[in-house]
Design goal:
About 15% of the residues lie in helices and about 25% in strands. With about 180 residues, it is α+β, with helices and mostly antiparallel strands.
Length: about 180
């Protein structure tokens, strides 16, 4: 076997092994607003000492499994000093035909029809941007799209992120994520 063939086989194997359980290599999530792994001031929270616009970012996805019946989007900071992380945005019951959420759509009619924003760790439903404690190392913000095997999960705008997560994990067939960082 030539060196080029060996390198090609190693590349194929690493791609196959890099997909975590529940992820498909063709299912992907991205943002035109959160680029290069960092946030612009438009997406940063506007309180707790942070001065941003707190606008939800554009998100888009492709390659969902054919049997997807709905989606859930989550934005989670595992580095928050809470002992349990911090949920920044949870959107449930996004219809299967949807492939994008526009910039600044949170808490507006621009959210995909039928979708439902649920409570975050800021309190109310809707997007809450990054705002880690001053002096901390930059925090990680994990954006995830979950493809579900059911058309809806039984939640309301007041449902906690933990309960949405429980129902999501019970019905997930695939997911795709990216991570952005923010510190101050």
């Amino acid at each position: 076997m030539s060196r080029l063939q060996t390198l090609f086989l190693l590349l194929i194997a690493s791609v196959a092994l890099s997909a975590a359980p529940g992820q498909t290599p063709t299912f992907r999530l991205w943002s035109d607003d959160v680029t290069g792994g960092s946030f612009g001031s438009e997406q940063v929270y506007n309180s707790f000492g942070c001065t941003g616009s707190n606008l939800s970012p554009h998100l888009a996805w492709s390659g969902a499994p054919k049997d997807t019946q709905s989606f859930v989007i989550t934005v989670y900071d595992p580095d928050a000093p809470t002992g349990s992380g911090f949920w920044h945005w949870v959107v449930a019951n996004i219809p299967a035909g949807t492939t994008m959420i526009a910039s600044n759509a949170s808490r507006t009619p621009r959210m995909p029809a039928g979708s439902l924003e649920t409570r975050t760790d800021f309190g109310p439903a809707g997007y809450g941007g990054p705002c880690p404690p001053a002096g901390d190392q930059p925090h990680r913000y994990i954006f995830t799209i979950h493809a579900l095997r059911v058309p809806k999960i039984d939640v309301t705008a007041d449902t906690s992120a933990a309960l949405v997560g429980f129902m999501t994990n019970a019905n997930r067939i695939a997911s795709a994520s990216f991570t952005a960082r923010y510190g101050r």
